[in-house]
Amino acid sequence: MRIIRDYSYVEQADRGASAAIGNFDGVHLGHRSVIDMARAAGEQIGAPLGVMTFEPHPRQYFAPDAPPFRLMGREARAHRLEKLGVDKLYELNFNAAMSSLTPRDFAQRVIADGLGLRHIVIGADFCFGKGRAGTAQHLVDFGAEMGFGVTIAKLLAGHGGAVSSTAIRNALTDGKPRDAAAMLGHWHRIEGRVITGDQRGRELGYPTANMSIDGLHPPKFGVYAVLVDVLEGPHKGSYPGAASIGVRPMFGVNTPNLETFLFDFKGDLYGVPLSVGLVDFLRPEEKFDSLDALITQMDADCARARTILAAL
User: What phi and psi, each to the nearest 5 degrees, are found at residue 70?
Assistant: First the structure.
């Protein structure tokens, strides 16, 4: 998959795609439906499959001090889109220049002239241009004028209502990763490189891989049964495990992070990128009376996680 970040400097081979447009936070089933429509349209006209998205997320750009809301970072999103067979990822810089484009300028400069897209697919609620003044119907009109096709995708509904990044965030906040997975079409995953922690887990007999969750929407703090993909290195592969998300109340005031214990694993993972999939919420964070009590609970957590994961 090719990643293109500047619509003003695009190689000829990267032009002419059939592209889905949106933020694609989480790459959930609704997003995949839009991408599949772009794929089908591209097959009809002989165009590669593209996705146009923005970095940083426009919501981050306009409210940088707001609480973290993203379900995935840019690398995790790119990994997921590549797995879906996307050929061209137009990960455009969202900055002052981009945010000031009128709807017509966006259609002309970015879609038609800059990327030369032959067909685009957007959700029915898609808004674009300065002040979010452009609508899906505006793009249909611009496409007819500027020479690109437009498909408007209906919003996808799940058992509990519309499938959306907001609904997925709510499920994770409530400690319901399986509800989130039903909307995502995959386990909710937190990706990042293993960082150096306090190494308390090693002292307790549970060495953990520590990862930052900075900038991401935090799931409910507590212990989870997880499936872990080691993405690089000699230990590359998939492993079952148990993970804790939170501030580690036994050990004072700490920055929220993710600590994962991989079952039956031996090896060095420092600096290695992991993808941790949340399967089931086991219990909230707790502060125990003693380390022995904590270890006893960790034994029980891991036993329960093994049972859950073995049944998948």
Answer: -70, 140
Burial class of residue 144, CB neighbours in 10 A (0-12, 13-18, 19+): exposed
User: What is the dihedral sign for C-alpha 31, 32, 35, 41?
Assistant: negative
Question: What is the rounded CA–CA span in Å between residue 53 and residue 124?
Answer: 16
Question: What are the backbone angles phi and psi of residue 3, rounded to the nearest 5°?
Answer: -110, 125
Sort 43 into a burial class: Cβ within 10 Å, 0-12 / 13-18 / 19+: exposed
Counting residues of the chain whose pLDDT is more than 90, the rounded percentage is 86
Q: Per residue in 18-28, pLDDT tens?
A: 999 999 999 99
CATH number at residue 126: 3.40.50.620
Query: Do residue 304 and residue 244 come from a single domain?
Result: yes
- 195 and 151 both lie in a single domain: no
Catalytic residue among 55, 91, 191, 259: 259
* Domain closes at, from 100, 134, 155: 155
Report angle CA 291, 292, 295 to the nearest 5 degrees: 85
Residues 281 and 177: beta-carbon distance below 8 Å: yes
Q: What is the pTM of this model?
A: 0.91
Confirm whether 145 is a catalytic residue.
Answer: no
